[in-house]
Amino acid sequence: MFSYGQLSIGVSTGSNLSTMTVFRRDLSTFKINPIFGINANFIADYMFNPNMSLWTGLSISQKGFNQHIKYYFRPGLDSTAEITSKLTYIELPIYLKFNTSIKQINIFYGAGPYVAYGIQGKVTTNITGRDNITIEDKIKWNKSYDYKSDLLNTYGYSNIKRLDFGIGTILGFSYKNFMLTASYQYGLNNLMWEYFQDEKMSNSSLSISFGYFISNILKPKQL
Fold it and tell me: Residue 176's pLDDT is what?
């Protein structure tokens, strides 16, 4: 029989499929599409008992979205714009995780809050039609109004809040020291600095990662 208090340390990496939930007054004029990014994770899994543990750590995660906009001027002069936003965050998840074993395979599920801090980002705008140009804007995490693109000035995509937080879930399994996980995060913070009452921008991301538990720092003690 073992006491509680086993801490496992691991690393993982994988891919994200991310987008933003965008509510704008002119939502009918554009379409939001997901984009792919990468994630790299340092994992700490503290086991309270054989069936329950605390899953946390630090992650570097790429998020963002792609947006298609069509402008109607007059026949023959319509323009389209593809806006791609790529954001990089440092994230801290705090999930309560439940474990069950089938032979040598551990299956687990968890849920809880997360908090993220934006460290860098870029918005690329490709305009075709009446004009054919490409514009790149670095993400400005404060209330700056120095935009290269009038589109970004209109929609505010290069001027967003640095802090993000929300709720997440994780599902996965481990075999010996190897693990495969799938997780989903939904942001609750409105990332827009200025907005009307019915407008909102928030992150959401689906991730798949493959990893390895390096060691058990705290091993269970016999009672």
Answer: 87
Judging by DSSP bridges, how do beta strands 35-49 and 6-23 pair with one another? antiparallel
Considering the entire predicted model, what is its pTM?
A: 0.83
In angstroms, the CA 53 to CA 60 distance is 22
DSSP string, 64-129: EEEEEEEE--STT--EEEEEEEEEEEEEEE-EEEEEEEETTEEEEEEEEEEEEEEEEEEEEEEEES
Given the candidates 2.60.120.560, 3.30.930.10, 1.10.10.10, 2.40.160.20, the CATH classification of the domain at 6-218 is 2.40.160.20
Cβ atoms of 158 and 152 closer than 8 Å:
yes
Residue 50, pLDDT > 90, answer no
Going by C-alpha positions, the residue among 68, 67, 63 that lies closest to residue 36 is: 63
CB atoms within 10 A of CB 111: 17
Contacts of 220 (CB under 8 A, 6+ apart): 2, 3, 4, 5, 6, 47
How many residues in the chain?
223
- What is the per-residue burial (b if ≥16 Cβ within 10 Å, else e) of 16-25? bebbbebebe
Query: Are the C-beta atoms of 118 and 164 separated by less than 8 Å?
Result: yes
> Minimal CA–CA distance to 49: which of 8, 9, 10, 6?
6
Cβ atoms within 10 Å, residue 187: 22
Residue with the bigger pLDDT between 178 and 137: it is 178
Residue with tokens 């073992």: 2
